[in-house]
Amino acid sequence: MLNEIANEDNYLSSIRRLVRKLALNSYWLQTQHPDLTTLSEVAIQTLYDEIGYPLTVQTNSYPPGTVSPIHNHGTWGVVALLKGQEKNTFWQRTPTEEFKDKVTPVAEKVFCPGDVISFVPGAIHCVEAVGDTPMVTFNLYGETHSKARFEFDPKTHQAKNF
Predict the structure, then answer these.
(1) What pTM value is reported for the model?
(2) Of 101, 108, 147, 158, which is least packed with CB atoms within 10 Å of its CB?
(3) Which candidate, 108, 59, 117, places its Cα nearest to that of 87?
(4) Are 152 and 74 in contact (CB under 8 A)?
(5) Which among 83, 119, 115 is positioned nearest to 8, based on CA atoms?
(6) How many helices (H) and strands (E) does the chain have?
(7) Digit-coded pLDDT (tens) for 60-71
(8) Domain architecture of the chain: domains with CATH
């Protein structure tokens, strides 16, 4: 399917619609998610990841207050929020002569159950589980290009492979 669609915006829009339909209509997906063993660690359940096939499917559970590093994914991605609330902070590269990996926040948005977001490979964000309940997401990613996946430090203006 992906090879038949002319550009990234078109296929991400198509995938978002399918993921939203799955997230809203799948009892299994709504009820089966990784359990948090502690209140300080993210729990990840890989549902599909096969060598040679450019697709990863997983569900993630985040304790309240968990904040991810600022990062990109090095691939396209579609994420559906199943439970809780997720605040995304979006960043953009703002390089200077001194700091080629400088990033600056440009927007924030809080997502609620049923919301679906997609990312292009260079999109930079961080997520925070807001509210008092754990956050659960369904994640679908293309093939990650590890040399293009980074974690950004907004204090030192450095990027390192993530």
Answers:
(1) 0.88
(2) 147
(3) 108
(4) no
(5) 119
(6) 2, 11
(7) 999 999 999 999
(8) 2-146 (2.60.120.10)
